[in-house]
Amino acid sequence: GVCGKIIVKPSSQLNRNLIMKFCDLLLIALFLLSTAGIEGKSTKKKRLGRGRGSKWWGIARAGEPNNLLLNSIRMYHSISDQYLEPTVHATLRRKQRKLVRQNPGVLLAIAKGAKQAIHECRHQFRNRRWNCPTSDKVLRGKYLFGKIVDKACRESAFLYALTSAAVTHAVSRACSEGFIESCSCDYRHRGPSGVDWEWGGCSDNIDFGFKFSRAFVDTGEKGRDLRYMMNLHNNEAGRIHVQSEMRQECKCHGMSGSCTVKTCWMRLPYFRVVGDNLKDKFNGASRILPNNAGNLRGYGKGKYSFKLKPYNPEHKPPTSKDLVYFEHSPNFCAKDNKLGIMGTRGRTCNDSSIDVDGCELLCCGRGYRTEVREVEERCNCTFEWCCRVKCETCTPKKTIHTCL
């Protein structure tokens, strides 16, 4: 190295000692700098890996017609018309972009599903401290719901399950509506019919939607640690909740409005039903043991064949429909820009409720302000032939309670 090239005269013993000490210090400094660089890189990699798999959620913000496709006559068109605007391109991984190109028309279905997930999340958590806030400044998509996804808490579990379910639902419906070129109605239901009904019509293609969601949503999950398994489990739980709520829908045929025979098909549930079920699972989510070795001993074969151990040994292992987590949630009372938590200051609360929307819980014991406001709302609505509803605008006075 540098020190090896220094020539020292034997007569200069003092200079020789000083130079050797200098070389020792230089080598130590170089070693410390290289170690710090390695640790910094590994720490950064670990920090960036916590919210993995959620990058594509940003398509909900970039998902405008001029960004995605297409032909103004038809919402979904051929691959030749498909264009990924740079912002959209940045939210998707290479495998996801390949899936989009292989399935023309699917991109808008994914964007629709992502927006549907935002709407449903806000509805389900509208009265809680964490009310599913989203960022309007998302560029690369990872932190659409804030950095709360970096924590392996119940809220992250719900978000992963809900977004996975939304893609499954939106793609399955888009297939049956003819908006995706690589799929159509599900015609598997052509088996034995009932006494007064027969299979027919166009069933929503849950089989294609389920498989596509697996391939698209789960492609961002890497490794074999507990967070990897938590995300995969919750993604799968969301899809299963859509699949298990498929229902039979029928239409009557016969003379003069009679129901001589019925034609039936399988229909997706309303997404609100899926959201309600996932919210119930959020309330009873299973905390799992943060021990990779114990969880890696799977059963069966395949990507999803792992067994999650409950944190409390007296509890049963989580089922395929349960949501799982292994870190405690923040209290969400105070604003935390680092995690994207808005806090509850200024939120409207219910002073007569003892539930999560009550002023005592929602305001975190800080108290609340009460004031009377005039609120605009529609009133005195009448139906006019044909075919519209005409309403007046009223401004009644209401008592509003706001967290301090």
TrEMBL record:
Its main location: secreted. Keywords: Developmental protein, Disulfide bond, Extracellular matrix, Lipoprotein, Secreted, Wnt signaling pathway. Pfam families: wnt. PROSITE patterns: WNT1 (PS00246). The keyword Nucleotide-binding does not apply. GO terms for biological process: canonical Wnt signaling pathway; cell fate commitment; cell morphogenesis; muscle organ development; neuron differentiation. It is found in: Secreted, Extracellular space, Extracellular matrix. One of its GO terms (molecular function) is cytokine activity. Ligand for members of the frizzled family of seven transmembrane receptors. This is Protein Wnt.
